[in-house]
Amino acid sequence: AAAALGRELTIPEVAQSLVLTRVSGRASPMPLGETLAAFGATGATLAIHLAIHAVERVVEELTPLYGKDCPVAVVFHASWPDERVIRGTLATIASELEKNPIERTAIIFVGRSLEAEGFRESSLYDAYYQRRFRGRDGL
């Protein structure tokens, strides 16, 4: 699903963590402490699966933590021929989904990494960053 967005989901100085989670549902509750609010409090990029039916709850729980202008992307049927990506913000994503309904097989991404531009690349991609098996000369 991340490839469908054409974005990196971890970006230096923006969000270095990606949390894959879901919301409590009929089939099984989430363990104590594994809540959207707990994960959202970290500022990490969230990938929320099995939750398209609860997008209003996702918005309600995450808006106080990320702000209503925080980017959201919903990827439906990632890598399938009928793949769709619906983009918005926490303030607009519910109405975007009303215009472009999705019922199942989708993942909701929330986080500032979805909009980051002009960010500093990770040192891991810097040819001159000294690593254990490569010196500072880029070789």
Automatic annotation (TrEMBL):
Residues 1-93 form the Tetrapyrrole methylase domain. InterPro entries: 4pyrrol_Mease (IPR000878), 4pyrrol_Methylase_sf (IPR035996), 4pyrrole_Mease_sub2 (IPR014776), Siro_Cobalamin_biosynth (IPR050161). Keywords: Methyltransferase, Transferase. PANTHER family: COBALT-PRECORRIN-4 C(11)-METHYLTRANSFERASE, SIROHEME SYNTHASE-RELATED. GO terms for molecular function: methyltransferase activity. The keyword Membrane does not apply. GO terms for biological process: methylation. It holds the Pfam family TP_methylase. It comes from the Bacteria. This is Precorrin-4 C11-methyltransferase.
